[in-house]
Amino acid sequence: GGLQVTLKRRPVAQPKDIGGMSLAKMASGCNLLGYYMYHGGQNPEGKLTTLEENIATGSLNDMSVKNYDFRAPLGQYGMPNGTYGEIKLYSMFVHDFGEKFAETDTFLPESNPVNAENSTDLRESWRSYNCKCGKKRGWTFASSFQRRNKMADHKNVVLENKEYGVKFPAVDVFDGDFFFVPFNMKCGDSEIETSLCTPLCRLDNERRAFVFYSNARPAGGTFVKASNVASSDKADGIYYQFVGKPTGNEDIVTLTREDAENAHKVTDGGRHYIFITKNVMYQECINGTTVLNFQSDGNIEFKTFPELKNVPDGFTKKADENGFAVYSNTGCSKAAPAVTFEKLKDDGKTASYKINVGQWNDLDDVFIDIAYTANCARLYENGKLIDDAIYVGDDYPWAIGLKRYGKGSHEFILELDSLEKDAEVFIEKWPDFDKASSLKTVRTVTARSFAYTQVKL
Question: Do 194 and 256 meet the contact criterion of CB atoms below 8 Å apart?
């Protein structure tokens, strides 16, 4: 799910890196998706020493003293980053379809490249299980993605397995594309022969629904442009090919990939919903009631299928959108506290700054984002180290959640160690030194406010 940086090596795992690697593992026969780390953390206090890995105590790397954020799907302060949505696509699939997926055999075509440096040939895989009806059912995988490499485009590709009797419509697989799609998939009373959309989850209500997301592009065409709901007999024939005529007794929910990354399956009283929101959302059960918690620094908006039985308190039903009910709450804005910073000293190797944050008693959390350029950074309060970070590039400000440090005002001291232009460390994207030989500076310090709004279904 992430990758911890060290003082010597500072690679940044992007969401697509994690998604592409996870897909490659599944395509190669992996049946156990493990996460490390799923939720980043912080090293505890040692009684006699700090407890991080370091060369002085025999480890291979020097690492942060406190920070073990790991760039995990959920960071050490609980906020999701880009990999969270990417990983969730696989987690939701495995939750609802994993039992059958685990039964599959794996077939890797001989045409697959065996050399990682091969950037021209398409990677392909088939995973299938035998149905009692005599058919092979399963999923086919394709990838033209390799981290930090330019891969070939492949147009009018026909994914076909003659032994299985399966032939997909032609697709375009461009540099950076990776996907898996189903064949001979039972959907209620209907059966999908092939689909260019990937299963995400099932909604097992009185009328069943199967949720997919657009993941493979038809040859000469595009991904699905807008999420939509249709009965199986009215599903778009470009993306879904059925065995015979579908019954129409079930719904096909098709999401864009962005909506799928922002999707959550919610269960309330045995009824299933798909929720789609750009707000951070988590669900819990309180005294048998499903409660959704939305995190917001302003407005909250979500869309659901099926429609909720009642409009939640504080929300309005905004519209119906391609089969989804859209709800919004525009009264969630709360101002972030004032933040100031000033340089205190610079001795050539280390610079220090004072950061002041005002009170924020009426908020649930406040994050401060420190945009800095230096080798590493340490944050102190009342003389105690509370967090530290290793610089990975100007594009990645250091985000610190203040909830665990108290809702009162704060005065922090920030220390920066100089990043030398000729330092023997790996950084994917070095800063612009211009005429300087070293850098240790703070560009901005900003605050983001967050308040939770509870929704009871």
Answer: no
Q: Helices marked H in 335-402 — which ranges?
A: none
CA distance 316 to 56: 59
Q: Is 412 in contact with 378 (CB distance < 8 Å)?
A: no
Contacts of 7 by beta carbon, 8 Å cutoff, 6+ apart: 61, 62, 63, 375, 376, 390, 425
Burial 114-152 (b: 16+ CB within 10 A, else e): eeeeeeeebbbbbbbeeeeeebbbbbbbbbbbbeeeebe
What's the rounded Cα separation, in Å, for the pair 371 and 57?
31
Amino acid 30 reads: C
DSSP letters, 402-442, are -GGG-SS-EEEEEEEEPEETT---EESS----TT-SEE-EE
pLDDT computed for residue 336 by the predictor: 92
Q: What is the mean pLDDT of the chain?
A: 95
Instruction: Tell me the pairing of strands 105-107 and 171-173.
Output: unpaired
Tell me the three state secondary structure of residue 170: coil
Instruction: Measure the CA–CA gap between 306 and 320, rounded to whole angstroms.
Output: 11
Q: How many residues does the chain have?
A: 457
Closest CA to 387 of 401, 372, 366, 408: 401
Sequential DSSP letters for 250-274: SEEEEE-HHHHHTEEEEEETTEEEE
Are 354 and 368 in contact, with CB atoms under 8 Å apart? Answer: no
Phi, psi of 326 (to 5 degrees): -110, 130
Cα separation, 20 vs 147, whole angstroms: 8
Reduced to 3 states (helix: H, G, I; strand: E, B; else coil), residue 288 is coil
The tens digit of pLDDT for each residue in 157-215 reads: 999 999 999 999 999 999 999 999 999 999 999 999 999 999 999 999 999 999 999 99
- The candidate with the shortest Cα–Cα distance to 355, out of 377, 331, 330, 329, is 377
Q: Residue 406: left (phi > 0), alpha (psi -120 to 50), or beta?
A: left
d(CA 255, CA 214): 6
AA identity, residue 63: M
Query: Listing from the earlier edge strand, what are the strands of the sheet with 197-203?
Result: 197-203, 209-214, 251-255, 228-231
